[in-house]
Specification:
Distance between the termini of chain A: 53 Å
Strand order of the largest sheet of chain A: 2-1-5-3-4
Number of domains of chain A: 3
Shape of chain A: globular
Number of helices of chain B: 12
Strand content of chain A: 5-15%
Strand content of chain B: 5-15%
CATH class of the largest domain in chain A: Mainly Alpha
Structural class of chain B: alpha/beta
Low-confidence stretches of chain A: 363-401
Radius of gyration of chain A: 26 Å
Mean pLDDT of chain B: 95
CATH topology of the largest domain in chain A: Fumarate Reductase Iron-sulfur Protein, Chain B, domain 2
Mean pLDDT of chain A: 89
Number of strands of chain A: 9
Shape of chain B: globular
Largest sheet of chain B: 4 strands, parallel
Order of helices and strands of chain B: EHEHHEHHEHHEHEHEHHEHEE
Largest interface: A-B, 92 and 102 residues
Number of helices of chain A: 19
Largest sheet of chain A: 5 strands, mixed
Oligomer: heterodimer
Chain lengths: 401, 301
């Protein structure tokens, strides 16, 4: 490490988006070249530019060690904590060697790199009742809960409210009312807490809201953006799972129907039958679903697309009416898997956040043969540096209500 | 190169031209496709949302079938959504031996076992990492000269980077650009190239879903693209099949042809546009193909 820190200062050029709404002027780009050691942070570079060249640069920061969540910005188009991004890495990620610095997205700019977190992020956090609604009676001493359950919610408790996931949320980009990744991760923090008394009420609220759990587009942007591995999208999927499977909550957003229709169609055919999935998602999970009024309404509104697809031969009437199916024996095997797993008393889930990885898999970039026994004749040795971690434990989600 | 080939469901359903064009292109690239016709749907993330163990077991079954393909170098996908869904399951299966044993116990009823360490690549990754851009370039018979192509990566093969093996040595989130360039085309960058097409919420919030598709198509049009190319059939459904409705949602004419990756490769490798199913798109690729001569025809520069 000493070698890294001994590297002499280098020049780094920052291209910064500047904007002061109160000035009445339009946003513009500003460039400054600073001199710092390559392992220094982008935040230090911005602060040096402010100190040396332009005291009016607006940036919010505090701890400078990735824990206060104040200095969320965009570096080369990607959300990041300025204090947690090394200059050399930022330069390598820049198209032309010039590090591009912008304020976060999906939130109004107050000045330069400072966005209005109150207007968006904190309002959404408040939306999900971000406190424990304790089970009664409250014990005189501590609650006794399983270690796994508490470790599980520590993942969402790790959120430092930096807004990086909100900045990058693609659903929010087209639907600003979407509750969003940070607030829904916070919602899981209480839904997953065995001490909370309002699991059903919380989930029902988030499922009924058209901009709630079913408005997430599953784009992984928040997973990638989060500097603290909170995995907001993963938490949203778990909220959906508990809402639809444990509490059987019906929602007006087709969330439960879509999941049920998809899962049933794969059980019945092994492969997806698109022409049946859409009407069932709107009308109900059975063959008769397509005759329900919401399915008919959807069909009518989709006619411009359907007719063109038929005319072009993209979709044939027979292809739409008849599912493609797996061979009989394979379909039976798939159904046996469904029967075995669906009949368990409790869902069996592996949460890598709790268990960690016990074997380091070969990085996907380095090919290992599929048919190892046929092609290469043995599996690859583990990569250098792979260390076993703690003994894994499985986790079972509580099924309440 | 022999590969265990997973075409997915949609490439055999609502985008049959994808599966068809892959079959035409494969021999030209010396890829032998052994179709995993016994494998079931990956669940596209929806089955995992319903029950994680179910999704992991169904996909482990597919991986085990792939591992039985004699002499296959790897498993190949032509659907990004399948790739993403499978990667998520594989991450869990590979990370924890106890969990893998548990899943394999279920598979043992059919005499199948998944062994850790499967290599599963999207056709795009295979093009760059196994075939190589230089080889690809040398196979081009009809360079896509003057054709301005906007890459549409979607989500599932670009995020999350760690799980998908994207790093400085494997810039998989730039491979479409590299392939377009190798085929002689011009890469058009635009705002939505790595954003969500909106398909996963088409039944939950159709307006938001098609606003996403419409915006990206509009961005590409504003950036002067002749067409888009995508490695994901579900993106294709929202960008092409739904484009007439997306036009209504965003209130502008789009008329942006969207090609599947094997179609773009096939055109450059000299295949006939009809063989590649280019006549089966909702938005006719007239800016890409001169039908009278079957030659790639970008708008005159």
């Amino acid at each position: 490490m000493a070698e890294v820190h001994d590297r002499p200062p280098e020049q780094f050029t920052l291209k910064m988006r500047r904007y002061d709404p109160e000035s009445g002027g339009a946003p513009y780009w500003d460039e400054h070249t600073v001199e710092l050691e390559p392992h220094r942070s982008v935040l230090e570079a911005i602060l040096q530019a402010r100190d040396r060249f332009d005291g009016s640069i607006g940036i919010r920061c505090s701890c400078r060690q990735a824990i206060c969540g104040s200095c969320g910005i965009r570096v080369n188009g990607e959300p990041a904590l300025a204090c947690h991004t090394h200059l050399d890495a930022a330069k390598r990620g820049a198209d032309d060697g010039v590090i591009e610095i912008e304020p976060m997205g999906n939130m109004p700019v107050i000045k330069d790199l400072i966005v209005d977190m109150d207007a968006v992020h904190w309002k959404k956090i408040q939306r999900v009742t971000p406190w424990l609604l304790a089970k009664q009676p409250v014990p005189e001493r501590e609650y006794i809960v399983s270690k796994e359950a508490m470790v599980d919610v520590t993942q969402t408790m790790g959120c430092i409210q930096c807004g990086a996931c909100v900045s990058d949320c693609l659903a929010m980009e087209v639907d600003p009312g979407f509750i969003g990744p940070a607030a829904l991760a916070k919602a899981y923090r209480f839904v997953g807490d065995p001490r909370d008394d309002q699991q059903f009420e919380r989930l029902n609220d988030l499922a009924q809201d058209p901009q709630g759990i079913f408005d997430c587009t599953h784009c992984f942007k928040c997973v990638q953006a989060c500097p603290k591995d909170v995995n907001p999208m993963g938490q949203i999927m778990r909220l959906r799972r508990i809402a639809t499977n444990d509490h059987h909550i019906n929602d007006p957003n087709n969330g439960k129907r879509h999941e049920a229709a998809f899962t049933t169609l794969i059980h019945d055919n092994g492969l997806l039958w698109e022409a049946e999935l859409l009407p069932r998602s709107y009308g109900g999970n059975s063959w008769f679903g397509k005759f329900a009024p919401p399915a008919g309404k959807e069909l009518l509104s989709s006619l411009p697309a359907i007719l063109k697809a038929l005319v072009r031969g993209k979709v044939t009437p027979m292809g739409a009416l008849k599912p493609h199916k797996l061979p009989k024996a394979d379909l039976k095997s798939v159904q046996a898997i469904y029967d075995k797993i669906e009949s368990r008393d409790e869902r069996y889930e592996l949460n890598l956040y709790i268990t960690g990885e016990d074997e380091k898999a070969t990085p996907p970039g380095d090919p290992v043969a599929v048919g190892v026994t046929h092609e290469i004749g043995g599996s690859e040795p583990p990569p250098v540096g792979a260390e076993p971690t703690d003994t894994p434990t499985e986790t079972r989600e509580p099924r309440e209500g | 190169m022999k590969v265990a080939y997973w075409p997915g469901c949609v490439s055999r359903g609502f985008t049959p031209e994808l599966h068809g064009s892959m079959a035409k292109v494969a021999p030209l690239l010396d890829i032998e496709l052994v179709e995993l016709d016994r494998a079931c749907c990956t669940g596209a993330g929806v089955i995992a949302e319903h029950n994680q163990e179910l999704a992991d077991t169904l996909n482990a079954r597919t991986f085990a079938l792939a591992q039985q393909v004699d002499g296959a170098k790897l498993m190949m996908n032509i659907c990004s959504t399948c790739q993403g869904a499978q990667s998520e399951c594989q991450e869990r299966l590979d990370a924890n031996a106890e969990y893998r044993d548990h899943v394999n116990t279920t598979l043992s009823a059919e005499g199948l076992t998944y062994e850790t360490g499967l290599t599963n690549k999207n056709f795009l990754w295979l093009l760059v990492e196994e075939i190589g851009l230089d080889s690809l370039r040398s196979l081009v018979k009809r360079p896509l000269t003057n054709l301005k192509v906007g890459p549409f990566y979607g989500c599932y093969i670009v995020r999350p980077r760690d799980r998908l093996g994207i790093d400085e040595q494997h810039p998989r989130d730039h491979y479409l650009d590299q392939v377009i360039d190798a085929l002689g085309g011009t890469v058009i960058e635009y705002a939505g190239m790595r954003k969500c097409c909106g398909f996963p919420i088409i039944t939950m919030n159709k307006e938001a879903s098609l606003k996403q598709a419409g915006r990206h198509l509009g961005d590409a049009k504003d950036a002067d693209a002749d067409c888009l190319v995508t490695p994901c059939p579900l993106c294709h459904l929202n960008l092409d099949l739904q484009q007439p409705i997306a036009e209504q949602v965003v209130g502008r004419e789009l008329q942006m042809p969207v090609l599947h990756l094997p179609q773009l490769v096939g055109l450059a490798l000299g295949l006939d546009p009809k063989e590649l199913g280019l006549n089966r798109h909702v938005v006719r690729p007239t800016s890409v193909v001169d039908w009278s001569s079957s030659v790639v025809a970008a708008a005159a520069a």
